[in-house]
Fold this sequence. Notes:
Number of strands: 17
CATH topology of the largest domain: Quinone Oxidoreductase, Chain A, domain 1
Number of helices: 7
CATH class of the largest domain: Alpha Beta
Helix content: 10-25%
CATH architecture of the largest domain: Alpha-Beta Complex
Distance between the termini: 11 Å
Shape: globular
Amino acid sequence: xxxxxxxxxxxxxxxxxxxxxxxxxxxxxxxxxxxxxxxxxxxxxxxxxxxxxxxxxxxxxxxxxxxxxxxxxxxxxxxxxxxxxxxxxxxxxxxxxxxxxxxxxxxxxxxxxxxxxxxxxxxxxxxxxxxxxxxxxxxxxxxxxxxxxxxxxxxxxxxxxxxxxxxxxxxxxxxxxxxxxxxxxxxxxxxxxxxxxxxxxxxxxxxxxxxxxxxxxxxxxxxxxxxxxxxxxxxxxxxxxxxxxxxxxxxxxxxxxxxxxxxxxxxxxxxxxxxxxxxxxxxxxxxxxxxxxxxxxxxxxxxxxxxxxxxxxxxxxxxxxx
Length: 322
């Protein structure tokens, strides 16, 4: 049966997630080199709320209606001309940015994963087959945090025993990278609220500190949440000759005596989704899911991400068309 329409979470214009609505929209068709995926689940990321909020308006002008959603898991439904890597029925997961961000050079673009169907570029390292041992919710939660955690570890130059400060340890990336740091032999100092201290310790933190009380003399700081132009207090915690890696915008300034880098791997230099899948199946990589939402509550999930405290990823289950 040919599907002409589907349900999607839609932003009609710039505004907060409380204004988004579930609406009926046309099913997207794959063009040359593209695939269409029947989405089973997606997880929420900053761009899903910040782009339609207008935070980057001017630098990125969104066309409306806009469908959010970067990270997803689903099943290949249709192929565009020239696609050989995929076949209908393939289980797939990965990461793709909105087509409005094409100028940033990403090879992975989509029509938005918060929908029953979405179209993706077929030839990108940021899509992979979902292994049988990786369930749909975990596959939807892993792409961005898995890629980011792997890139941070690859860039850190970590030596066992080093003291590592993780700022933003209870978020999606933080709860993913803490066990990896501990497994690499780091002495992890995590920022967390009092009520989350037990959680971050269970994930590998040796010490817990408040967000405004960073210890001095750490060898490495990983900033996962503070804006890039407000990093002076984090930099002050790093010993001379130490390193500060950040994943936030704007790009960080230089700080005397330490190595400061923005870790943003848009070319999969540190591995793509196939490597995330392999690490997940081997037990080296796992996303913590804070909460799962029904599709009818997708706007609430994005509002939760934007306004409320969370410890890990928020996943939205997407129903199939009947």
